[in-house]
Amino acid sequence: MRICITSQGNNLDSSVDPRFGRCQYFIIVDSDTLEFEAVENPSVVAGGGAGIQSGQFIANKTVKAVLTGNVGPNAFQTLQAAGINVITGVSGSVKEVVEKYNKGEFKATQGPSVDSHFGLR
């Protein structure tokens, strides 16, 4: 299954980025094979609307879930509308997170975990 993890670096040993809309990288990984693609977040320097832009960007990557530290209301709504499960409160390395995901240690979040503009503070 293809999942997306927000990351501070471009590999599986990188730490999870606690922000969704303004994370440094999106790691798109096949949770079964660990094959991955690291994509720089084009919205990291957006003046506004980073959550929505990042959500739309990830929706086009055909992933089933997004795992991140936090997600704001606009990004959450965008991801939910695309049928993507959102899992927040995630930390550690990308590889550790994939392993925990595969073991079923995470549950989908029911709403945003932070207010709008969280990544700007």
Description:
The chain has 121 residues and is α/β, with parallel strands linked by helices. The chain has a single domain (2-111), classed as Nucleotidyltransferase, domain 5. It is built from 3 helices and 5 strands; from the N terminus they run βββαβαβα. The chain has a 5-stranded mixed sheet with strand order 3-2-1-4-5, sandwiched between helices. Strand 2 (25-30) and strand 3 (36-40) form a beta hairpin. Helix 1 packs parallel to helix 2. It is globular and about 35 Å long. The relative contact order is 0.23. The model has no long low-confidence stretch (mean pLDDT 93).
Helix/strand layout:
Elements lengths: L1 E6 L17 E6 L5 E5 L9 H10 L5 E3 L5 H9 L3 E3 L6 H9 L19
Parallel strand pairs: 1-4, 4-5
Antiparallel strand pairs: 1-2, 2-3
Helix proportion range? 10-25%
The CATH topology is given as: Nucleotidyltransferase, domain 5
Q: Main β-sheet: number of strands, strand sense, barrel status?
A: 5 strands, mixed
Secondary-structure class: alpha/beta
Sum up the structure in keywords.
Nucleotidyltransferase, domain 5, alpha/beta, globular, 121 residues, 3 helices, 23% helix
